[in-house]
Structures are given as C-alpha cells and as structure tokens.
Write a structure and sequence with these properties.
With 458 residues, this protein is α/β, with parallel strands linked by helices. Helix content is 25%, strand content 15%. It has helices at 11-15, 17-28, 71-76, 98-105, 168-174, 186-199, 262-265, 310-326, 370-392, 403-407, 445-457, and strands at 116-120, 154-158, 179-184, 206-210, 217-221, 226-232, 237-240, 253-260, 273-276, 286-290, 293-298, 333-337, 396-400. It is globular and about 55 Å long. The protein starts with 10 loop residues before the first helix and ends with a helix. It binds 2-acetamido-2-deoxy-beta-D-glucopyranose (5 copies). This is Trichome birefringence-like family.
Amino acid sequence: MKLNWKPCLSLNKHNHFLVKLAVAILLMGLAFRLFFFRSEEFPAPDLESPVVDKTEVGEAKPPVVFAVDVSEYEDQNPMPQNEYDDQDQMPQKVPEDQNKMSQKDLEPETCDLFTGDWVPNLKGAIYTNASCPLIEGHQNCMRNGRPDTGYLYWQWRPENCKLPPFDAEKFLDRMRNKRWALIGDSISRNHVQSLLCMLSTVEQAVDVYHDEEYKSKRWNFPSYNFSVSVIWSPFLAKAAIFEDNNGVSSSEVELHLDKLDKKWTEQFPNLDYMIISTGKWFLKSSIYYENDTVIGCHYCPKRNLTELGFDFAYRKTLGSVMDFIATSKHKGMIFFRTSTPDHFENGEWHNGGTCQRTMPFKYGEIELKDLNKILRNIELEEFEKAAPKAAENGVKLKLLDFTNLLLLRPDGHPGPYREFYPYAKDKNATVQNDCLHWCLPGPIDSWNDLIMQMVVNG
Ligand SMILES: *[C@@H]1O[C@H](CO)[C@@H](O)[C@H](O)[C@H]1NC(C)=O
Ligand SMILES: *[C@@H]1O[C@H](CO)[C@@H](O)[C@H](O)[C@H]1NC(C)=O
Ligand SMILES: *[C@@H]1O[C@H](CO)[C@@H](O)[C@H](O)[C@H]1NC(C)=O
Ligand SMILES: *[C@@H]1O[C@H](CO)[C@@H](O)[C@H](O)[C@H]1NC(C)=O
Ligand SMILES: *[C@@H]1O[C@H](CO)[C@@H](O)[C@H](O)[C@H]1NC(C)=O
C-alpha cells in the first residue's frame, strides 16, 4: 500500500526539490529537539523514496526530513465560515440518515466507530477545571485563560452508528475489582486525566502511587475497588533518555530495539485492561542497540553510525510489542492506540508554530502530515500482523484508531494557553505554543465515549 502523496503540482516545484532537500538536511544539523521536522511538500516523482516504500524499510537510508507545508491548507481550505461561533445560535444538526442509523444499530459489527464527523453538542463537557483537580497545568486551558469556549461544544458522531455519551456510573459499576493502565507517552497522561475527570463526576479518584518523577501513577476508586494507572514508557522499549523536564536533551536516546521496557511488561500480567501507544518519541535523535551492541542510529550527524531511519526502529519495536501481547499467557483486554496528530502551523514546536483555529475541520478538509502518516501506517500494519495471532491465542487485542478523529480538531490544543494567562503582562509576549497535547476538557474526552462503547456496551 502506498502512502497517499499529493501529485506534483508544477515543474518549478519539482526543480526546487533537490535544493530543498539539501537545505533541509543542513537545517537538521541545528535541530536537537522533538517536533522539529519540517520541510516542503515533496513532489510526487521523488516520493518513491526508500524512506516511504515499505518494502524497503530496514535498509539503510538517508536521514529523514518530513513535514508538510501547512500554508497549503490555508490556500485550498480556507477556514470554514464560523457558523457556530455564537453558541446561542449553534444549530442542532439532526443526522440526515436516521433510518440508516437505526438499521446499522441492529448490526453493530458493521459499525466503524472511528469514521465520522464532529457535530455540535450543546451540553458541553461533563467536568470543568473547577470540578476536576487532576488536570495538568499545561492542559488546563480554562484555568489558563483561554478566551474562546467553542472547542468544548462538539461531539464525535460515527458515520453509521449511534454513540451514546460516556456513562461514568455504568462504567465504574462494570469495572468493579478491575485494573486498568494507560501505557505510553504524555498523550497517555493527557488521556488518563480525561478519564479520571469523567469518572470523578461519580467518585473522586484517590491517588495511591507515584514514581519518583511523578510520571507513572495509580489512582483508586475506593467504592469500586477499581484502579487506573498511567505507566510512563514513551518508547515501550528499553531506553535511556537524557533529557530535562523542559525536553532539552544533552545526548541521543539510547534505544534497545530487542528489549521491551520492563516498566510495563512486568505490570502486564496484573492488568485487566490496557491502552498501549507510542509514537513521536521515535523521531528524536537516537542510537539503536541490539544485543547491547550499537547497530546504527537515527539522526546522529556527529557520530560515525549508519542512519537506519526512525521507521526502522518503530516497526521493529512495535513488532516486538505486538508479539509480546499476542503470544502472552495473560488474557487481558488490550487496546493498541494509534498515535495522535499535531496541528502546528507556520512552524513547529521549537520555532514558533501556532494553532489558532477555533473550529473543527470537516472530514476531508485536512490531510495528515507526512510524518504522522508514516507512523500510523506502521502502527496499522504491525497491528494487522498481530491480530490473528492474538485471536488464535485468545488474547483480546483491539485497535483504537483515533488519528483521523483528532486530525479534525485543530481547535482542541492549548496553543499559548499551556501557561497561566500568557499575555497578562505583555500582550505581545512570545509564548511557547502547544499544538500537540489537548485541552482538558477537550476533544480527547470523546475517546472515552468510544472506549465505553467497546468495553461496556460492545
Ligand atoms: C476555572 O477557570 C475559570 C476561568 O475559566 C476560573 O475563573 C476559575 O478560577 C478556575 N477554577 C479553578 C479551580 O482553577
Ligand atoms: C479488589 O480487586 C482485586 C483485583 O483487582 C482483588 O484481587 C481483590 O480481592 C479485590 N478486593 C476486594 C475487597 O474485593
Ligand atoms: C545476540 O547475541 C547472541 C549471543 O551472544 C547471538 O547468538 C545472537 O545471534 C545475537 N543476535 C543478534 C541479532 O546479533
Ligand atoms: C567511520 O566508520 C567506518 C567503518 O566503520 C570507518 O571505515 C571510517 O574510517 C570511520 N570514519 C571516521 C571519521 O571515523
Ligand atoms: C505590541 O505591539 C504593537 C504593534 O506591534 C505596539 O503598538 C504595542 O505598543 C505593543 N505593546 C506592548 C505592550 O509592547
């Protein structure tokens, strides 16, 4: 399966390709932090590059530079008229295809929960910054003074089926004596807070464990003997990370492609439900090990090592993760969650990228950035490979493919409101924007509606 590249638009653009590539590679020498991959859109003929062609993954390849020219979205897809800007005037859309919907309800197996659109939801979120004390400062957009609230009034509607809203009481009741864990990077942490906040509308979560750095944590819901953990394992594989709390790294990540991270594999047999994911950390400068021996790297220009490409490492790691799950003696329910897209425009995390939209996109109005496509395709392929093995072994392995659902929500990020009233002192202040994580309450609350549907109602 090929990635869906855009066709070459002009000869002129094509001629610029080599220049752009050279410049991009030079620029990479300046970049040492996450989320800095940016280049121009690659014209079609050159896209048959080894980095992209899956049959060649695993072979040595040049450093990978990708991203997308976001200005393109603006040209081709101007911001839709802000028809729902005023909440009072927000129309309540009625599904046009109600007959079809009720028919499909009778055959839930035909329902694809992950394809659909965002529709207005006058009710808004079931929790707020005031009702939930567990929202991390950087994602607490309400408290941080984000002025617009439209992003709170949308609800995910799958194309062909009904999705009832999350029912915290029913969920907790069903999860009596059960143990959950969300395993992965900071998006998993973002999600666990959303889940806890929604459940806390019924009973406050009690903090029962945290590691030294407060990265892995566990909470209990005492009346239900139900526990929820977040396990910090951004690569899922054994990794040594040399980075401070602001994400400034002093050296490359040392990543062991043949060893899974014990932080989650040791917990695995004790857990009833898991949501496992990873993604963007694989884009960082890394040295790859197998058998405790260096086999190459991804983006390590100062070292005399073979560039193996992050996609090589990602596929290898996900392959091991899936294998571990599919062949495990432990038969929990395991969700593999695909990675989430960011919405930086006019730059990236490190160089002033922003996300100022206040409305969702409609289906088809935005395309996944190239980097996200590569990650997601590997995720889907490795999942598809493992699914039959898991089924044969009686392991319940399911996919949570939230990528496209979130792609439509450029309005759901903190942007500058990752800080408390960022413009209070200086209206023109230069503020670090976050167009990667999600405001809470916010779009990822809808994940729990889908999970509820799959776990409790499904
Ligand atoms: C929640 O946010 C509002 C502003 O939207 C603020 O007035 C209020 O103090 C915040 N509450 C807490 C508990 O942070
Ligand atoms: C609580 O749940 C655990 C399993 O998660 C179980 O082993 C334990 O017996 C339960 N405790 C009570 C009091 O039911
Ligand atoms: C790892 O080391 C063992 C023993 O030292 C060897 O048998 C094996 O082939 C090595 N594997 C790889 C991938 O190098
Ligand atoms: C880089 O490594 C290759 C083979 O491993 C070696 O032949 C070459 O001399 C090395 N270059 C430098 C600058 O160390
Ligand atoms: C902000 O920028 C505008 C225009 O660039 C300028 O007129 C204004 O004085 C600036 N305000 C402050 C507080 O620096």
